[in-house]
Amino acid sequence: MAEILIIKLSALGDLVQADGALRDIREHHPGDTVTVMTIPAYRRYFERCPWADEVFVDPRAPRYNPLQMFDLRKRLHRCRFDRVYDLQQVSRTRFYHRFLFPPVWWLGDAAGCACCLKRPQNSCAADHFKRHLALAGIATTHTLNGDISWMADDVDSVLERGGVKPGYVLLIPGASPDHQHKCWPRFKELAGKLIEQGLQPVTVPGPGEIEVYRALPGITLVDGSGCLDYFGLAGVARRAAYVIGNDTGPTHIAAHLGCRGLALFSAHAAAQSTGIQHSRFRWLEAADLGDLPLERVWRTVRADMSGGA
Fold first, then answer.
1. Residue spans of the chain under pLDDT 50
2. Whether residues 176 and 261 fall in one domain
3. Is the domain of 99 the same as that of 193?
4. What pTM did the predictor assign?
5. Orientation angle between helical segments 19-28 and 125-135, nearest 10 degrees
């Protein structure tokens, strides 16, 4: 039995986009132990993920802190991994390859590793992983078709308490605090349009977003202890008739659940660099989302929900 390590540190949208690649690696190593290295924020995600046997938590300490780096190095050496699949492929994991790991077979973009391939500019992660895993002789049956249905909680009681009826539309009007330029500013007007058409807009706020979301027409879903976690969000998204959101983790969760929907992209990232094209989502792009008119979004939503072109 071999010890296999997959490195996937963050962020939420990137995690769900890598689901298919994780599954293909898992299926390539039947009988082996597959461990995923991630940061504390995503420990629960990978503890639930069916493609991982174990989770190795990286505190993501500053690289200039020698004591913490030495501690991480000792932990990694004790694990005696036989293969490492670096699906993060950033300067931090290249540093890990060079300084923290013992000599080991490594798939990534670090100089001198056993299976090295640089990700082309503007290539989505899934397309890159498909090429990279194939180079290593791994069948890529699922890499472009991740299925994170395992994430979705049963939310029947949450929907019932909230008065949500079948056929609702999930709106995702937020983004991380560092990326407010990714937020389209007309979700309130869009929610009003949906209500005019007899459709029920629903939002699922994250921490710190409840009051902002409640200002939108429609239903804001929370549970008895506060915000739903991302497993609850996935459950709500899976049951929605349609999803409309910014370029943010919850939107990519919905896309990789197989939902129908529309994603709105600013100049921060080209839509096809995120892998949204491998889902049932449509997308609209604008250099500045403030310039994206309500009428254009509404026309796209109405045509999509009615089965038009």
1. 308-309
2. yes
3. no
4. 0.95
5. 20
pLDDT at 309: 43
Show the tokens assigned to 176. Answer: 């991380």
**Per-residue tokens: 44:** 């629960």
Sign of CA dihedral 60, 96, 23, 240: positive
**CATH label of the domain that carries residue 294:** 3.40.50.2000
How many angstroms separate the CA atoms of 139 and 125, rounded? 17
CB distance 240 to 202 below 8 Å = yes
Token output for 257: 């659940």
- What Rg do the C-alpha atoms of the chain give, in angstroms? 21
What residue numbers bound the domain in which 178 lies? Answer: 151-305
* Residue that the structure tokens 């890499």 belong to: 143
Strands 219-220 and 3-7: unpaired
Whole-number pLDDT of residue 202: 98
- How many CA atoms lie less than 13 Å away from 228 in the CB half-sphere? 24
pLDDT digits (tens, 9 = 90+) for 216-267: 999 999 987 789 999 999 999 999 999 999 999 999 999 999 999 999 999 9
H helices of 168-240, where?
Answer: 187-196, 210-214, 230-239
Domain end call among 147, 162, 181: 147
Q: What pLDDT is stored for residue 48 in this prediction? A: 98
> Which of 120, 147, 174 delimits the end of a domain?
147
Provide the 10 A C-beta neighbour count for residue 100.
18
Which pLDDT value is given to residue 177?
A: 79
What is the strand order of the sheet 169-172 is part of?
Answer: 219-220, 201-203, 169-172, 242-246, 261-265, 281-285
Domain count, the chain: 2
The encoded tokens of residue 264 equal 């709105």
Specify whether 115 is located in the same domain as 196.
Answer: no
List the one residue out of 72, 87, 23 whose CA is nearest residue 51: 23
Determine the straight-line distance between the first and last CA of the chain, rounded to whole angstroms. Answer: 51
